[in-house]
Amino acid sequence: MSETSEDSGAPAPGSRRPGGRTARTRTAVRDAVLTGLTEHGYPALTVEYVAEHSGVHKTTLYRRWGGVEGMVADALDLAGEDAWTPPDTGSLAGDLRALAREVVEGFSDPAHAAAPTAFVGAAFQSPRAADALRSFYAERFRRCEEVVTRAMDRGEAPAATDAGAVVRAVSAPLFLRLFVTREPVDESVADQAADAALAAVNAGVFGRRTERPGQASAPGAAVGTSAAGS
């Protein structure tokens, strides 16, 4: 294995975004990271493993990514650069159900679930991976807000509905089952999550609220109080 010419210099780890041979190197490293995370998990992933499976010299890996944390974070960054767009079924109910079903399908199919599940696991053990995962989902949710914006334009949702809160409400109960309680999920669970979010939209739960200066927060609204802090 030898270093390639495009790797000369010392940019910030994982910060390059050019095309050509450097892009191919980045993709090769991403694929090796995914394989390593899937097969062995984050604690067992090493620079040596990525070097062997990507064909990129470990000196280059250290120079460009700084180590395993940087490579995992950049793999997530690369995943977030795709062209994915949210569904457009023609109705808010249909769009929310389609979004929920995508979550279930993505994490239930063994052929597709291993990599994203491994990324979530890495985020629990690496602060940098956690930051990258947060950025990845922030971008995903930002794209998903379009389904709520369209619904407001069609008059299906109250004006000034908090689109970000709506799309997070759809996936939150699914992620709870997948990663916290480890309960099974299927299409019926996905539809239930979507329908619950839709009912909340129709009830005005997700209307944007502006608290007036000096106005007291609702009881229990602050994290760390009452039962949450006991």
Automatic annotation (TrEMBL):
Q: Keywords for this entry?
A: DNA-binding, Transcription, Transcription regulation
Chain segments annotated as transmembrane: none
Where does the record locate the signal sequence feature?
A: none
- Entry keyword Transcription regulation: yes
> At which residues is the DNA-binding region annotated?
46-65
Q: Where is the composition biased (Low complexity)?
A: 8-26
Family annotation (Pfam families): TetR_C_11 (PF16859), TetR_N (PF00440)
What SUPFAM superfamilies is this protein classified in? Homeodomain-like (SSF46689), Tetracyclin repressor-like, C-terminal domain (SSF48498)
Q: Which Gene3D superfamilies match?
A: Homeodomain-like, Tetracycline Repressor, domain 2
Chain ranges of the HTH tetR-type domain: 23-83
Instruction: Specify where the region named Disordered lies, as residue ranges.
Output: 1-27, 210-230
Q: Which InterPro entries match?
A: Homeodomain-like_sf, HTH-type_TetR-like_transc_reg, HTH_TetR, Tet_transcr_reg_TetR-rel_C_sf, TetR_C
Which PROSITE patterns does this chain map to?
A: HTH_TETR_2
Q: State what protein this is by name.
A: TetR family transcriptional regulator
